[in-house]
Specification:
This protein is mainly α and about 220 residues long. The protein has 13 helices and no strands.
């Protein structure tokens, strides 16, 4: 039942507006904890797309006590905390998610990537990302994280190898931003520009892509 309603919300968002999609979602009633989680994830996804991160975070905060044993909820909540630079909370939530689900590759990856992106605790970052890779060796986000870690460590060839592999699997805008930056630093500026411009055609509003271009140009 809920899945068809979430598809309807997507159609409303595309044809009308995110606000109308949210009004539609707010009128739905979940019949199980699983449906409730799907509903919350859909709402936070719309809010995040509209750059209304604080509202999305508040929604997760209000629901946290209902999902104390859900690693998926904790993971989504942690990503929102990260966007708002609430790093202590993000780390706490990811560690809790891993404790509940020890093979939760994306949680290990998120923790490692956050360290790498902030250029801190790089040895710990490597350990977490290595665990994530051992669980999901072909996950493009995890490959990108390992590449970004090597970039932070100044190992550009290894960085390029991992991120190129990630990009070949999925030309995600964040991966494109990272790949372009490594090529740019290596002096391959034309290749970098080509990758960025191609990604911008599909994702003109991506924050990480725009920030990378602004910083390097």
């Amino acid at each position: 039942f809920i899945e068809s309603k979430l598809i309807t919300a997507e159609i409303i968002a595309k044809k009308e507006s995110i606000d109308k999609a949210l009004i539609f979602l707010n009128g739905l009633k979940a019949n199980s904890p699983e449906e409730n989680l799907s509903l919350i994830q859909s709402k936070t996804s719309f809010l995040t797309r509209a750059n209304r991160h604080q509202e999305a975070f508040q929604l997760m905060q209000n629901e946290a006590s209902n999902f104390a044993h859900s690693p998926e909820f904790k993971f989504d909540y942690a990503l929102l905390a990260d966007k708002l630079h609430k790093y202590d909370l993000m780390e706490k939530l990811l560690r809790e998610a891993i404790k509940i689900k020890p093979d939760y590759a994306v949680a290990y990856n998120a923790l490692g990537y956050s360290y790498a992106d902030r250029n801190i605790n790089l040895e710990d970052a490597k350990k977490y990302i290595e665990v994530a890779l051992s669980i999901a060796p072909n996950n493009h986000y995890i490959l990108d994280s390992m590449g970004w870690l090597y970039y932070r460590l100044g190992k550009l060839d290894s960085a390029l190898s991992f991120i190129q592999k990630a990009y070949d699997i999925q030309s995600d805008p964040e991966i494109a931003a990272h790949l372009g930056e490594i090529l740019w630093v290596q002096g391959k500026k034309k290749e970098a520009e080509d990758i960025w411009q191609l990604s911008l055609q599909s994702f003109p509003d991506n924050e990480i892509l725009k920030e990378t271009l602004k910083r390097l140009h």
